Amino acid sequence: MKTNLFDYLDFALRFAPPGPEEKDIRAKLARIGIGEGKSFDFKNLSVEHKAAVGLGMKDGEARVEQYLATGQKNINGWKVGSLFGERTFFNGDWLKRAAAAKGGIYGNDAVEAMYPMTKTLADGEDLDGSKHNYTLTFPKGQFPPVNAFWSVTMYDGTAQLLIENPINRYLINSPMLPGMKKNADGSLTIYIQKDAPGASKESNWLPAPNGAIYLVMRLYWPKETPPSILLAGEDTWNPPAIEKVK
């Protein structure tokens, strides 16, 4: 996709009538042969345009990464916010739309699901399964407040793909709770590490990659009254911090 992005874009826009908020950006794209009645061919661009396209792609990707890192609320290291919706939701905010696609494409809007995501500890240190083991603990009675169900899914922090592992477990979700072990105080600890934590803890093990970690919560049909993730940052319900095992 990185080598023929604009060919795909040129093709797709033929079937996507522009909205009023797209007037300016469509005009810019038309200047390099993208859009209805156009025919994009990178090799036919001027040197100036080729350079601008290359630099623009590099700058664009950096801005998307920056938005994912800082454009939402940071709560205990989790990035919490609403990134998904229909055309009127984005209203021409192409940076937010690109960040949504990179963070987790095809997401629902906030009333259907919220997606706290993290690659770091609360202090900003990167999660790395090759260096450390981690835990995620939900205090007693403080599971994600949803009307449907919730999950915590593990991804490779670089490729953003699921992790091959010996127990074929890629997430832990609320339907799995009856088979998991709670702590003496009623809390639940998930063990996030690349190596098995031992038979007594395996029911609570979420296998991690041997490298960068990317975790995404999926909170389906979040409750709208306290405690609620929809009121993120107002201390009604906040995702707990990932802890490094010492």
Descriptive overview:
This protein is of the alpha+beta class and 246 residues long. It is 23% helix and 18% strand. Strands 3, 4, 6, 7 and 10 form a 5-stranded antiparallel β-sheet that branches. The protein has a 4-stranded mixed β-sheet with strand order 9-8-5-11, with no helix packed on it. It has a two-stranded antiparallel sheet with strand order 1-2. Strand 1 (73-75) and strand 2 form a beta hairpin. The protein is elongated. It starts with a helix and ends with a strand.
List the SSEs and their pairings.
Elements: H1 5-13, H2 23-30, H3 47-70, E1 73-75, E2 78-80, H4 87-90, H5 94-104, E3 113-114, E4 117-118, E5 134-138, E6 150-156, E7 171-173, E8 188-193, E9 205-207, E10 213-220, E11 242-244
Parallel strand pairs: 8-9
Antiparallel strand pairs: 1-2, 3-10, 4-10, 5-8, 5-11, 6-7, 6-10
Helix pairs in contact: 3-5
Unreliable sequence segments: none
Task: Name the average pLDDT.
Answer: 92
Q: End-to-end span in angstroms?
A: 41 Å
Output the number of helix runs: 5
> Could you tell me the number of beta strands?
11
For the biggest sheet, the summary is:
5 strands, antiparallel
Which H/E pattern describes the elements?
HHHEEHHEEEEEEEEE
What's the overall geometry? elongated
Strand content is 15-25%
